[in-house]
Amino acid sequence: MFSVRKAVYTDAETIATIHVNTWKSTYTDLLEERDLTNMTYENRKTLWETVLRLKKREQCTFVICDDEKIVGFISGGPERTKRFAYDGEIYTIYILDEYQKKGLGAKLLKAFAQEMKGMNYHSILVWVLKQNPSSRFYERYLAKSVGEEAITVGEGIYQETAYGWDSIDELLEILA
Description:
176 residues, alpha+beta
């Protein structure tokens, strides 16, 4: 049985491990090797310790557990670019490879959307590397493509697509 809960500071190490491992497995065929090795466990652990220590009121992070073992997470807060008509953004969502395609992403997305709605957000944006097959996850829940931009990862330049839900309420109806 899987359960979703808010992340706490002591989850930082596990979240960092999941972040690095799934990032590398997800992007192996999408990024150059030199750019894949840029993300390290040490820098992600520091990042997640900082995020979870600060607990900004406008941001949230959730984990999904299988018998107390964390197998994935989602985090987000205010939309960062200010170029789109969306007020919320998913910054990261990762699930260990062996737990993917079991409906866990939808559980995380639902908890995240409910929390964002409770914080008075009305819409959600998420950025996805253009060739990432995971973009189908967002399309399945009726996110629409709203823009593209080039990003730098390590030494490489890659294309990202922005997907958005205009209404958190509509997303929650789909996830019900």
